[in-house]
# Entry
Amino acid sequence: MAAPDTTAPQGRVHTAHIAGRDLVLQQVVQPVVASLSADRSVHRPPILGRCALAGPDEVRAATAAAVAAAPLWADVPPADRFALGPVFCRRLADAAGEFTALLVAEGCPRRIADWLLDSMSGMFDAESCRWYLGLVRREWRDGDRRLVLQHHPDGVLAINPPGNAAAFSAATAALHGLMAGNAVVVRVPRRFPSSTTFLLRHVLVPCLEEAHAPPGTLNFFCSAPDSVLRHWLDDPGVDDILYYGNSERGLGFQRACSDRGKKAVLELSGNDTVVVWKDASIPGAVESLVAAFHGSGQMCIAPNRAVIHPSVADDLIAALRVRVAGIRPGRPEDDTTLLTPVPGDAHVAVLREALAAGAVLVCGGRRLTLAGTPHPAGPFLEPTLLRVDGLGTAAGLSAVREETFFPLLTLVVPHPEADDGRLLSDVIGFLNRNRYGLRNSLWTGDPAVAERFVAGVRNGAMLKVNQPHLDFVHLLPSHGGTGRSGGVHGEATYVFLKTSHLQSAVLGP
# Structure
């Protein structure tokens, strides 16, 4: 198989962008093409480019620029701000080739890169933005009075995207914040800055220039997170902070924001569940469950666990095992590749605990080379299926209770019940006791089961029935979660609403 073509991305200098100007800074980071070798002394990945690294002065300047721009941008009519979405889609389509090349060079499988592009296009097309615009202002008559509900921007939104899928997260959050009327500051992660700075500078900034946005409406720089987050917490000019990351750290950060009178918008860990009922489409359910291995499970909205009706468990697990066996390591430019390298050995303790408690290893669990050969230093982790019998047993296992963030799918088979109605109640209760809440999905052929599921499952920002678990859904909120996924105010989130505040008005004759 040919080596990845990184000729075009190599050599690019990615600048900071503050107050409408590109800044080439003295300090730089040099991101590298992702290594797929088990022996790094033999294979040294090439440099992908150079990215300006901001210091304290640039961090302060970015916030100051946003503070100056915020009232001017807030005065732009909402219809003009929401028109940014379709313009972004057009420019994204024009830049898709280079953006995809950067993602692939950073190690993102091309198949996932294409999915990210499609997802962004669906979030911000003309129909979506018309729908969004209709949510920020409602007006009706009450006798001789006019009643108004309207959302105003909070002011300055600071965004701390995750290390994984950073470009997607940074751009979608920034665009939502801008459409709401906020000025935006983005910290670009140091791990993979190339695709993120490219998308912000060469796709989103031109959209703002076309809209005649004031300088400082969008600012971004690459930096390590801790000092930047401290600055944002202490700077009175920052109103909202959108934080992506681990739940433990994120919930602590929420408390720090509250202490300083700032709004924390949290996008934290997930621990999604797919329920497969006895009358489900087995092929459809299998394909939905395979989403657990996209990006080696390092996507927060990938399912971590499945609950399978005992009457179909053996057949479904057998079909899933065959399907998972075909998921092998590959180069990111290969259209069939799903897996990405998995650092560390967190999987060892998780699997050991589960097996000691009686779980059955259906397949997987080994480290693999790019060729798919078992190797203790292999950069990939083999897709892994665990079977656990009994909801009670499953609830006590880390593999079920926590987000694992590696390619593991735990298959929970409840003990048989004489009454399916009682079994469904037990399953719904199991889902509602999940401390995390991004998505839950169900596969069933029974409309009554589907209605009970939708009415009874209160955990999660999104519920899906007979739909792919991973995909975003046109017009519906793309962000948010409950519990440890979204904090104490967690819910399904349109970021443009979450980073604005609702005001009512009454106008007499």
Notes: The first strand starts at residue 12 and ends at 14. The radius of gyration is 23 Å. The chain has a mean pLDDT of 92.
